[in-house]
Amino acid sequence: MRISLQKWYRSGEPWVWLNAGAVAISIVMVVGLLALIAVRGMGHFWPAAIMQANYELPGTESRLVAGEEVDHEEVPIKQLKNAGVPIIEGIETMQRTLLKVGNRDLTNADFQWVVANYLTNIEYPEEVMAIERREWGNFYGYLRAVKQDGELIAGANDAELWSIFQQRIERALTIYDDIYEIEKHDIGAINSELERLRLQQRRLELDNELTPTRLADIKAQEAELQAQYKQLEKKLAKLHVSFQRDSIVVDSVDGNTTEISLAKIVRAYKPNAMSLWQKIAFYGDKVWEFVSDDPREANTEGGIFPAIFGTVMMVILMSVMVTPFGVIAAVYLREYASQGAITRTIRIAVNNLAGVPSIVYGVFGLGFFVYFLGSNIDQLFFPEALPSPTFGTPGLLWASITLALLTLPVVIVATEEGLSRIPRAVREGSLALGATKAETLWRVVLPMASPAMMTGLILAVARAAGEVAPLMLVGVVKLAPSLPLDGNYPYLHLDQKFMHLGFHIYDVGFQSPNVEAARPLVYATALLLVIVIAVLNLSAVAIRNHLREKYKSLEV
């Protein structure tokens, strides 16, 4: 038996099983983590039922509470007693429930912990509604009346009143879209042109080339733009008056009556009265809003499209920058540099750069790219904009270059590995057929090494897309006023600051004033970041596999 065990041990089979078990455990942990993130994050968009109940602590007056049940936990009696909550003798723990009660403008709190043992008469009335607002979070209560220009609009019954309410919401949302289009695009384009003319005039003044003819031409263009601006202002004023026309009268659960303008409402629904298919449709709308809309309420509501766009744009620019430099450096080290002490030292330095903390790259990017290089670029090419910096301030360009520098060692090492695996006979065969060294490199060696280059790019994207620390110094912001790519000349604004999914997670999770409201969005944004990185990597993997199949015939 002992000899058999020794033979089995020497065969290496125990190590195979040990490695297989470790891989299986790792896969289970990764899948479990992703499942937890998905459930906690994506479950936030499901229309949760609104509970209404009487809440009466011993020795206090009973009151009505209502809201979405967010969390439940068992709390030791001692903890509740220390918090001053009356306890039930004879038991060790009591359950408390976290309710999203909304109505922050009335109660100054979106969430409230209640002891479940003191809840009575629990019910889920179908008439209770949830209103998503642009400010002050959700409102939970009952619809009492709809007003137009301060006059009540009659409804034969609650169903008809609700139908009128929904129609007025659709009207308000249409007007909101028109206002958004004018403010963000039409007026934005005019402001961009006015700024361009101002800088043009300033440039001519600095160059002593501002002749009366050129000045008159600039003033004529400005006058035309100002006339267009005034027309848009009049149109906006009419839209705002129409936007503020309707309002509703609502009652909160505790009996407070308030009036809410429809200009502040995003949507209203009755979750307790919704069918399964209605809830699925609502869920789809909320998820689409999350990935396609702008954020609101300090990033705790609305969407995160600017962060998605900024992340993808930055990664694309970083990839465009890091790939050629990484490949050129690897080709030089492997194909042209003499293999001596200096080359070995350079390789050691490259490998060590891969282990430098990312925040160090951020400090370097801020000091060298922003303060030194950017300031000099402003002095040489944009003096008319000074003292306002153009490139002498953190922005998309410097963030992309900083991350390109951070991931450069990965691309160099992966490309060098690919070049080293190409048999020498392939190079010699190409040279023997009359090709020059440059032609051999360009037509034979690099195509065969292209899968390794793509491997380096995949690793670079995987690391760069999730980096946050350096970006906080070189370009990322909490809220960006516009996207770095738009319809205003020069269309791609590399000097602009941008939003990023990783920083959005940090901001919502650690800087939000409303922690409970932000928590589900942390999970949802983290899941979306994983999906974005996976899509980028899978795209690179598909290209790598295509190149591998294409040049397989060149392998010996």
Automatic annotation (TrEMBL):
<feature type="transmembrane region" description="Helical">
    <location>
        <begin position="395"/>
        <end position="419"/>
    </location>
</feature>
<feature type="transmembrane region" description="Helical">
    <location>
        <begin position="440"/>
        <end position="462"/>
    </location>
</feature>
<dbReference type="InterPro" id="IPR005672">
    <property type="entry name" value="Phosphate_PstA"/>
</dbReference>
<feature type="transmembrane region" description="Helical">
    <location>
        <begin position="16"/>
        <end position="39"/>
    </location>
</feature>
<feature type="transmembrane region" description="Helical">
    <location>
        <begin position="521"/>
        <end position="543"/>
    </location>
</feature>
<dbReference type="InterPro" id="IPR000515">
    <property type="entry name" value="MetI-like"/>
</dbReference>
<keyword id="KW-0472">Membrane</keyword>
<protein>
    <recommendedName>
        <fullName>Phosphate transport system permease protein PstA</fullName>
    </recommendedName>
</protein>
<comment type="similarity">
    <text>Belongs to the binding-protein-dependent transport system permease family. CysTW subfamily.</text>
</comment>
<feature type="transmembrane region" description="Helical">
    <location>
        <begin position="353"/>
        <end position="375"/>
    </location>
</feature>
<feature type="domain" description="ABC transmembrane type-1">
    <location>
        <begin position="308"/>
        <end position="540"/>
    </location>
</feature>
<keyword id="KW-0812">Transmembrane</keyword>
<dbReference type="Pfam" id="PF00528">
    <property type="entry name" value="BPD_transp_1"/>
</dbReference>
<keyword id="KW-0813">Transport</keyword>
<feature type="transmembrane region" description="Helical">
    <location>
        <begin position="304"/>
        <end position="333"/>
    </location>
</feature>
<keyword id="KW-1133">Transmembrane helix</keyword>
<keyword id="KW-1003">Cell membrane</keyword>
<keyword id="KW-0175">Coiled coil</keyword>
<feature type="coiled-coil region">
    <location>
        <begin position="187"/>
        <end position="242"/>
    </location>
</feature>
<dbReference type="InterPro" id="IPR035906">
    <property type="entry name" value="MetI-like_sf"/>
</dbReference>
